[in-house]
UniProtKB/TrEMBL annotation:
Putative tyrosine-protein phosphatase required for protection against superoxide stress. Its EC number is 3.1.3.48. This is Putative tyrosine-protein phosphatase OCA1. Pfam families: Y_phosphatase2 (PF03162). Its main location: cytoplasm. It catalyses: O-phospho-L-tyrosyl-[protein] + H2O = L-tyrosyl-[protein] + phosphate. GO terms for cellular component: cytoplasm. Belongs to the protein-tyrosine phosphatase family. One of its GO terms (molecular function) is protein tyrosine phosphatase activity. Keywords: Cytoplasm, Hydrolase, Protein phosphatase. InterPro entries: PFA-DSPs, Prot-tyrosine_phosphatase-like, Siw14-like, TYR_PHOSPHATASE_DUAL_dom.
Amino acid sequence: MTSQHYIPPLNFGLVEEDLYRSGQPNELNFPYLERLGLKTVVFLAPEEPNQKFLNFIDDQEIQLYHLGSNSTSAWDHISEEIVLEALDLILKPENYPLIVMCNLGRHRTGTVIGCLRKLQRWNLTSIFEEYRRYAGPKVRLLNEQFIELFDTDLVRIPPQYVKWL
């Protein structure tokens, strides 16, 4: 009898109940993700997800939203438009369980989650501590500035929104 090992993706974390964050998973992570029962993936990287991951999403009947595809390079900063699109998906309970990801789960994912935390009225010290925990030594000050200056009044709160907001 073989035991099943469950390996979370790079930079995996629980954001809120049924809301997760990570880097792009590989096939070793699929059994772990399968146990989450995901309904939605919000993919923020400019590149297409790898084919094995696309096959996994298709097999699991998970809805993929590739929001980063209009960026011209991986070094582009995430736009306000993409952050607002991502938050619109995150705030709708019918999309849950949901995971937000980019290639490494650091900068684009960290910026979206940071803006969500601002919407939840976290203080900036706590928001930046969480961002830095996932970014490691690769902190981008422009992302922190983006989060600090992000105007939460631009976010459209749906009539039926997640209970933790």
